[in-house]
Specification:
This protein is α+β, with helices and mostly antiparallel strands. Helices cover 25% and strands 28% of the residues. This is Helix-turn-helix domain-containing protein.
């Protein structure tokens, strides 16, 4: 389990390196300075979209912030070493990082665990700067994308622009596992 203290320390480190104030980052991300302070101090977890916006503002990948492993040219991560999940299930998801090759990598593979329908409270779609590729590993979801709903089952894939509002909506109480690859848009 990655602790939120570690996430907060990474954000603070990157913010200070960029010589930005909490207010500057909060304004760029459309969040309150109070929320950013709580995140930096490890007092709260936050939605992946919020974490992604902070990362974008600080010019660091989400995987660098979330993963405590040292950076190397080769990243081998055994399944048993990947048992951590990040996120608040009441927000509708939790996720696990599959690799952290480098903070300069433009690809971030994760597994998103979509919370079962009865416990999922997330209704507002997310946006972020990266393109997103998804592959349904287990279960099924409805992909709400730019106002349209598409049913997706195990084995289905999608590729889309993260800047458009989107949300993984659970369709049953089994939840779902979704391989998600965030790809930095370079054009």
């Amino acid at each position: 389990m990655i602790d939120i203290q570690h996430i907060g320390q990474k954000f603070k480190e990157a913010r200070l390196r960029n010589k930005k104030t909490q207010q500057q980052i909060a304004d760029e991300c459309g969040i309150s300075k109070s929320l950013l302070s709580k995140i930096e101090n490890g007092q709260t977890s936050s939605a992946v979209a919020t974490l992604s916006k902070i990362c974008e503002s600080l010019d660091v990948p989400l995987s660098w912030v979330l993963d405590g492993h040292p950076e190397t040219d080769l990243m081998v991560l055994a399944k048993t070493d990947r048992q951590f999940k990040v996120g608040d299930e009441n927000m509708g998801y939790s996720f696990e990082l599959l690799a952290n090759r480098s903070r300069f990598s433009s690809i971030e593979p994760t597994i998103v665990h979509v919370t079962p329908k009865d416990t999922n409270q997330r209704v507002e779609p997310y946006t972020h700067s990266q393109d997103e590729f998804i592959y349904i590993l287990e279960g099924s979801i409805s992909l709400l994308y730019d106002g349209e709903k598409r049913h997706m089952e195990q084995g289905d894939t999608a590729y889309f622009k993260g800047k458009n509002p989107h949300l993984f909506v659970p369709v049953d109480n089994k939840g779902a596992k979704v391989l998600t690859i965030f790809i930095e848009d370079t054009y």
